[in-house]
Amino acid sequence: MTGRRALGRQFGWLWAAFVVSSYGTGLRFGAFPMIAVLVLHSGPTQVAALAAAGRAVGALVAVPLGPWVEFRRKRPVMVAMDLIRCAALLSVPAAFALGRLSFAQLLVVSVAVATADIAFRAASGAYLKGLVPPEDLLVANGRFESTTWTATVVGPPLGGAAIGMFGPMTTVVADAVSYLLSALGLRAIGGTEPRPARAGAARLRAGELLEGWRYVLAHATLRPLFFNAIVVNGLIMATEPLLAVLLLGPLRFAPWQYGLAFAAPCVGGLVGSRLAPRLVARFGQHKAMFSAGVLRACWPVGLAFVRPGVPGLVLIMVVQFGLVTCCGLFNPVLATYRLDHTPSDRVVRTLTAWSVSSSAAIAAMTAVWGLLAALTGPRTAIAVAGVLLLATPLLLPRREHAPLDTREQAASLT
User: Fold this and answer.
1) Half-sphere exposure of 250 toward its Cβ, with a 13 Å CA cutoff?
2) How far is CA 62 from CA 115, 174, 179, 349, in A?
3) Is the C or the N end of the chain the one with fewer CB within 10 Å?
4) Closest to 395 measured CA to CA, from 238, 211, 277, 233
5) Which of 303, 329, 293 is nearest to 240 (CA)?
């Protein structure tokens, strides 16, 4: 269960592809809002719509992709999603160079990238389950999680510097190139992937669109984890714009202080993801996940008490470090638990349903908390979200359930 375990050449290429695309995404962080404001002179309402529309519409478009991807080879789908994201992003600097860039194009590109993200994550989860032995899934997911947080620490500061020197289009091009390199890495994995067998009708049926939700909601432990995850993620993400308004507005934090306050604590994500295999080996999967889920909910309420100056900056960094460390521990254990408890012929649909629901919840809660902040102020809205998060551990499963044999799971739902 140690993070140093060798997982083979094929996993090495898969991880390398993930690394390069993660760092590209980190570099592009914040580029679209900057392009909207600096190039297209958009207002706050349009910038907020850009952030919400990509998630909401992308989630809606991704719904039929789950059943479609489920019964296809996963690696070609992943390569195709990388190429779609590359082409969509490259269209932005191309239109800018021709003087044709519009806000509508940014919206379309945001939707295309969000849709491809969901399809890629679902396909990669299913591919990982077939590539790595069950006993190594937590190590693999821990490596992906540590890569995500490392890219979050390094990418935005480097991207901000690149934007300052060369303009916001630079990081968009860098992210597009990262997806192309990711596609090449996936191609380098080699080997043959069997085509998934499809039972029943050969054509996609309307009922299959909801199969992922049916499976999750019928599962005794995945159901509470599902609701916990979408509520926690929605409340945390909904407060991010409000924190930006509070810190950069009334509290007069400098932009570099704002970036430092949220980038430096992401080291905690690396710490949590590295600890996950050790803690699971010592305390068990359920206890480690439950404890991290409880602790994760206790931190955000502290952000409501932030003050100007160095004390406020220190408070934010402490709160964020605690939150991110718990998330870095919780996320890979949840990802492994979800794969362990999902039959191979339902992985893509289950992960798609999970991602679609999470994206829709984040978009909806971001809009609701924006209205709440307009009525009560950003600090009050942040405090409300923090208090609600304190209740989310009630959604975590209290008992541990051993993974069932996938054939028994499949038979129980037919």
Assistant:
1) 10
2) 5, 25, 19, 10
3) C
4) 233
5) 303
C-alpha dihedral over 192, 345, 80, 361, to 10 degrees?
-150
Q: Are 69 and 352 in contact (CB under 8 A)?
A: yes
pLDDT of 32 higher than 90 = no
How many whole angstroms separate alpha carbon 329 and alpha carbon 331?
A: 6
Over residues 62-119, the pLDDT tens digits come to: 788 778 888 888 999 999 999 999 999 999 999 999 999 999 999 999 989 988 998 8
Joined tokens for residue 243: 């924190």
- Torsion angle defined by CA atoms of residues 116, 226, 387 and 394, in that order, rounded to the nearest 10 degrees: -170
Question: Do 176 and 47 form a contact (C-beta atoms < 8 A)?
Answer: no
Q: Per the confidence metrics, is the pTM higher than 0.90? A: no
Tokens of 259: 């970036």
Closest CA to 261 of 311, 197, 205, 331: 311
CA 406 to chain centre: 26
Q: How far apart are the C-alpha atoms of 109 and 16, rounded to whole Å?
A: 25
140: left (phi over 0), alpha (psi -120 to 50) or beta: alpha
Whole-angstrom distance, CA of residue 181 vs CA of residue 229? 31
- Helix 378-390 vs helix 222-238: crossing angle, to nearest 10: 160
Taking the C-alpha atoms of residue 191 and residue 189, their distance in angstroms, rounded to an integer, is 7
Instruction: Mention every residue, 6+ apart, whose C-beta is less than 8 A from residue 150.
Output: 266, 269, 270
What are the DSSP calls for 219-244, one per residue?
A: STTHHHHHHHHHHHHHHHHHTHHHHH
Q: Angle 132-144-135 (CA atoms, 0-180°, nearest 5)?
A: 30
Q: Kindly report the CA angle at 13 between 12 and 17, in degrees rounded to 5? A: 120
